[in-house]
Write a structure and sequence with these properties.
By secondary structure, this protein is of the alpha+beta class. It has 2 domains: 100 residues, Alpha-Beta Plaits (2-Layer Sandwich); 90 residues, Alpha-Beta Plaits (2-Layer Sandwich). Helices cover 22% and strands 33% of the residues. A hairpin with a 2-residue loop joins strand 2 and strand 3. Helix 3 runs antiparallel to helix 4.
């Protein structure tokens, strides 16, 4: 949360029609800022303008409407801005990033309780690791299903991929109570990525989960294939 005092105001300029890995660039940037704990961000849409190509764009022309400018603005501490600036430059692509010093007179008040500071994790070295996350389908995080929020967070942090599986039957222990059938369907999220990426994402998993199980296993990746968009099978 921001405190009154000196801060940086950052503006990221991108085209409305630009994409990154099949996702709108502004949406990818917004997800990245959200899951990196930036205090708040706003997307503004332009109705006219010109960019590096020096061509005039206007909302009155249907043909070039997807080239109108979008501006993602946020205010944050210099330390946080410097920590994410490198990745933000990658996400912006050919867009422009502008920032200047500002003064926070009164920070916005959050209606959500402040999350607990996640425990630190040791950095794990290795080629590949499998992470399994077991939660209940009814679990939620900030008014949305927890498994959906976790998938969005993984995409924002560029985890290689995730598969979500829904259980149909099972049981679990609840404290000191005896084993009992679980009436809530279970959800399994299965992720494979480098040990560094998994270790870096774990603190966010702990912050978002109130209860559940996370299991890590060393794996050998035999084959990783990716079919480019538009290529027929």
């Amino acid at each position: 949360m921001l405190n009154p005092g000196k801060a940086l105001k950052v503006s990221v300029y991108v085209s409305e029609g630009s994409t990154r890995r099949g996702v709108a660039t502004y949406s990818a940037i917004l997800d990245f800022l959200f899951y990196r704990g930036i205090s708040g961000a706003t997307v503004l849409k332009g109705i006219a303008g010109f960019g590096a190509d020096h061509h005039m764009h206007s909302a009155s022309s249907v043909e070039i409407s997807d080239r109108l400018p979008l501006i993602i603005q946020f205010v944050e501490t210099p330390e946080k801005v410097n920590a994410i600036l490198g990745k933000l430059e990658q996400l912006a692509g050919s867009g422009m990033i502008e920032m200047h010093e500002t003064m926070v007179a009164k920070p916005a008040q959050s209606s959500q309780p402040k999350p607990a500071v996640p425990a630190e994790h040791l950095r794990i070295d290795g080629a590949a690791q499998l992470m399994r996350i077991y939660i209940a389908e009814s679990d939620r995080w900030r008014d949305k299903p927890l498994h959906e929020a976790l998938v969005e967070a993984m995409r924002a942090n560029e985890i290689a991929g995730v598969t979500v599986l829904r259980g149909v039957h099972g049981y679990r222990t609840l404290g000191d109570r005896p084993l009992q059938l679980s009436h809530a369907h279970s959800i399994l999220l299965s992720v494979i990525d480098s040990r560094e990426k998994i270790a870096g994402f774990l603190p966010l998993v702990e912050q978002m989960m109130e209860e559940g199980l996370v299991v890590l296993s060393d794996v050998d990746v035999i084959k990783y294939a990716y079919r480019a968009p538009g290529v027929e099978r």
